[in-house]
Specification:
Protein name: RGS domain-containing protein
Helix content: 55-70%
Organism: Oreochromis aureus (Israeli tilapia)
CATH topology of the largest domain: Regulator of G-protein Signalling 4, domain 2
Largest sheet: none
Strand content: under 5%
CATH class of the largest domain: Mainly Alpha
Domain RGS: 43-151
CATH superfamily of the largest domain: Regulator of G-protein Signalling 4, domain 2
Radius of gyration: 19 Å
Number of helices: 8
Number of domains: 2
């Protein structure tokens, strides 16, 4: 179990504080530049809307064998803007690829959300995956994104600016 930060050597804690200050400073500096890629560290939404940020985040998730969350989120974004005549086909594809318990890229969703999706697969609409997509986004924002900020993938992306 986690014993808290008090068990870490003070040198590690100081190093972590220094890194956080540097990352915050970089984020502020890039934010002031008002460039899309410069705001890579601001939040997950900004990262996902940045081509280079998205590439760095994808590489990080791939290294952790958890790229399916991002793939699902992107598939939902694509689905939302799809013409209505393609929605049923795309909805079935997303369900089979990410939601079905035997899916090759199964994402971590609660049973209630899975059941709700299964019940609307016959007549999907543009908002069909909104709740599931939001749950996966929250998972990435709370779990993957903070780890990404501490990763070498993030450091490399920052250096590229």
């Amino acid at each position: 179990m986690c014993k808290g930060l008090s068990y870490l050597p003070s040198s590690c804690l100081e190093k972590a504080k220094e890194m956080r200050v540097k990352l915050s400073h970089l984020a502020e500096t890039h934010h002031k530049n008002k460039t899309q890629d410069g705001r890579i560290l601001q939040d997950l939404e900004t990262l996902l809307n940045s081509k280079s940020g998205l590439q760095a985040f994808r590489a990080f998730l791939r290294s952790e064998f958890s790229e399916e969350n991002l793939q699902f989120w992107l598939a939902c974004e694509d689905y939302r803007v799809s013409p209505s005549n393609l929605q049923k086909t795309k909805a079935c594809s997303i369900y089979n690829q990410f939601i079905n318990p035997d899916a090759p890229l199964e994402v971590n969703l609660d049973a209630e959300t899975r059941e709700a999706l299964l019940s609307v697969m016959d007549s999907p609409c543009p908002k069909t995956f909104n709740k599931a997509q939001q749950r996966i986004y929250s998972l990435m924002a709370k779990d993957s994104f903070p780890r990404f900020l501490r990763s070498h993938h993030c450091m490399e992306a920052v250096k590229a600016f």
